[in-house]
Amino acid sequence: MKYVGIIGAGTMGIGIAQVAATNGCKVWVYDANAKQVETATVGLEKTLTKLVDKQKISAEKMTEILANISIATELKDFKDCELIIEAIIENKEIKTKVFTELENYVSESCILSSNTSSISITSLGAELKKPERFIGIHFFNPAPLMPLVEVIPSLLTENTLAEKIYNLMKEWGKTPVIAKDIPGFIVNRIARPYYGEGLRIVEENIATPEQVDDAMKTLGNFKMGPFELMDLIGVDVNFAVTTTVYKDYFYDPKYKPSLLQQRMSEAKLHGRKTGKGFYDYSEGAEKPVAQKDDALYQQIFLRIISMLINEAVEAKRLGVANDEDIELAMQKGVNYPKGLLSWGKEIGYTKISETLQNLYEEYQEERYRQSPLLKKM
């Protein structure tokens, strides 16, 4: 597949365009806001210049990448594309409208895909004349750096398409995994408690955000704590994904969003992009220092890691992906220091089970129910 179309010129769209162009594809980038494409391509040029300065790529490679990218002014410009990846706003109606229009211009064999992180691939594809050519290709931000790509066939996707995209992603130097079309796929489903339980601990005044972050970094060796990570992703974006997963699981209490996170979103305290979130990023602002407490840190770590391991075990039970892909996805998609299934083995599944049982008895909430498989491991 040498002719690729990208719809959406935000950070994700232009990042995917860079990946495809780096791997020798001719790429067309379209955005409904024409100015955004110009801004994105100028930004890409600056990014590539920095890579040349750091000797990560040659000046010739930079010229080649930029020459491989063209600006599409309308969807008709995608007529020769073999693969199109949509990376626009997380809104089903808007995405569907784009895809149904796109079908008027592309060839019968053109593969259509979405980079959605939380919308059902089956529901998006079902609106098309040829739903069998539709698939999810979910990159992680920043796309040029993050190795993981979740490949998600829908119930209507042609049988061999997932393998075809899997192999293409390998050619592009990525680490692909194949996931079932369930809310959140692999990573966004399993990772929910990292944020959700951290938020719950702070909401209950058990600990401060900086204590939760410090506990997870010092005891769990995570690169970033949940609150630092939410500020990086965008508090509003993280809240939107949690809300979608919660709704799509028919309001399962396990995925219930946080009121604190909703209030933060409403106040536009979105994190780094707005200058303030759980931490203050304004010039000269000092990051609060966590008040260390060994017993509290152990409690925080065990509570969050038990919830994460339980989600990974449940994903295994439901066949969301195979064991290897579940482990790979969490390490390559969100930089977890270890695979959660092997981490459960290391801590001891009995201890994880006891921790969740104690939480369940204390709170009397379905949120803390165990996967039926956990008790057998």
What would the keywords be for this entry?
377 residues; alpha/beta; eight-stranded mixed β-sheet; 16 helices; 8 strands
Task: Describe the protein's architecture and organization.
The N and C termini lie far apart (43 Å). The protein contains 16 helices and eight strands. An eight-stranded mixed sheet has the order 3-2-1-4-5-6-7-8. The mean pLDDT is 96. 49% of the residues lie in helices and 10% in strands. Strand 4, helix 4 and strand 5 (111-114) form a beta-alpha-beta unit. With 377 residues, the protein is an alpha/beta fold. Helix 13 (294-317) packs across helix 15 (340-347). It is globular, with a radius of gyration of 21 Å.
Task: Write the topology of this structure.
Elements: E1 3-7, H1 11-22, E2 26-30, H2 34-53, H3 59-67, E3 69-71, E4 83-86, H4 92-102, E5 111-114, H5 121-125, E6 134-139, E7 148-153, H6 161-171, E8 175-178, H7 187-190, H8 192-203, H9 209-220, H10 226-233, H11 235-248, H12 259-266, H13 294-317, H14 323-333, H15 340-347, H16 349-363
Parallel strand pairs: 1-2, 1-4, 2-3, 4-5, 5-6, 7-8
Antiparallel strand pairs: 6-7
